[in-house]
Amino acid sequence: MQRRFSALPPQCLPVLKGFVAARRGEREEMQDAHVLLPDMSVCLSALPGHVSQVSYFAVFDGHGGARASRFAAENLHHNLAKKFPSGEKENFDKLVKKCLLDTFKQTDEDFLKKASSQKPAWKDGSTVTCVLVVDDMVYVANLGDSRAVLCRMEATAGEDGQRRSLTLSLSKEHNPTIYEERMRIQRAGGTVRDGRVLGVLEVSRSIGDGQYKRCGVISTPDLRRIQLTANDRFIILACDGLFKVFSADEAVKFVLSILQEGGVEQKEGLTEEELRFEAACQQLASEAVRRGCADNVTVILLSISF
User: Fold this and answer.
1) Per-residue pLDDT tens over the stretch 127-152
2) CA distances from 98 to 173, 206, 248, 269 (A)
């Protein structure tokens, strides 16, 4: 007889709220895209019996045009929904990871097919960092140099009850200077010059970039998984525009400093906590531009509460 697994009771589950800020910077065109789906169940035909909630958040940093980032933003979550595992809890973790790998492959193949059928062929490409939250489990799938980081609070040894923040990296960057990436590119007959594939492309994994796919650029994401706890405050999901001028730890501390500030201007329909997160998200993106980031900057800030 098959064992039945009941879903976690709703009071044990984290509530994630997404806030987004996008800045064009000094670029002529905004080539970033983003998606916030706090309730992804609307895209799924049915939730598996042991799952209560699914959320999806993603940033896409386009290069060579905005078509690959827009295509991925419009299609990745639909492909994910079609492939999302529907079975029992055994092997569920493996099935989610396989679903993410298959989803990225499918989205890349679909875009390349569309791109190559154009006259002239589209040469756009895009990074992807997506956060899929299944109940209290976070899966991060990443291609390229956008990043996801988690702020976790931890009690210090002192008697003052103070808590310090830990910055946990949830993604791995892919650029051609990393040894394994460079080796793969060279084995495929490509070269790395000035830290770029063929001296041009800054990332070694992406959606699109058809002309580099025969040179060892791939669309296989790096996958990470972490279980959320009541000590987790927020996740920052952002393109490399932010991380060119902020270290991950600086970005976390910048957000924390704004969350701890005094009064915020009231807005109808938003709680004081939501207003603080909204302000922190907007100020983080603006500060990246102020610090001289000439690139597009997109920041998604996910508040976590239990």
Assistant:
1) 999 999 999 999 999 999 999 999 99
2) 20, 18, 28, 39
CA neighbor of 83 nearest in space, from 107, 106, 99, 104: 99
Beta-ladder partners of 138: 133, 226
Nearest-5° Cα angle at 217, 199 to 177: 50
pLDDT, residue 157, reads 64
- Whole-number CA gyration radius for the chain: 20
pLDDT digits (tens, 9 = 90+) for 253-274: 999 999 988 666 777 778 889 9
Cβ(176)–Cβ(190) under 8 Å?
A: no
* pLDDT tens-place string over residues 199-209: 999 999 999 99
DSSP secondary structure of the chain: -PPP-PPPPGGGS-EEEEEEEEE-TT-SS--EEEEEES-GGGTSS---TT---EEEEEEEEEESSSHHHHHHHHHHHHHHHHH---S-STTHHHHHHHHHHHHHHHHHHHHHHHHHTSSSPP--EEEEEEEEEETTEEEEEEESS-EEEEEEEEE-SSTT--EEEEEEE------TTSHHHHHHHHHTT--EETTEETTTBS-SB-EE-GGGGGGT-B-PPEEEEEE--TTEEEEEEE-HHHHTTS-HHHHHHHHHHHHTSS-----TT--HHHHHHHHHHHHHHHHHHHTT--S-EEEEEEEEE-
